[in-house]
User: What shape does this take?
Amino acid sequence: MGACAFGGRQRGASLLHPGRILAAAGPVPGDNPGMPAEPALWYLYLLECRNGSYYAGISNDVDARFQAHLAGKGAKYTRANPPVKVLAMRAYPDRATASKAEWQLKRQPRERKLAWLALPDPT
Assistant: This one.
């Protein structure tokens, strides 16, 4: 192994034990219990509000987000128009994909929103 450009130590040398080379270890299962094993899914959800309107949003925890909407801590729209139920939801692999799908859903006319979510996922 070559010397480190900053400080003359060999690459991989321990700071506490200067002549010792540390082996690079791969990830160990359970090594970082605070991090999920795989990325969490994101969901596009559609709510029915008390006034009969629909509200679309994204979240990685739809139940918690629905409770936030009920408590008046969700979006400004749902504070004025409280939701009564979750009509539908669809899973996406990441936030960006869910956000794009939300944008597409919000462009749909009201009568096509539920049908759009009932269709198989195009990705």
Notes: The chain is about 30% helix and 20% strand. The first strand starts at residue 42 and ends at 49. Residues 21-25 have pLDDT under 50 and may be disordered.
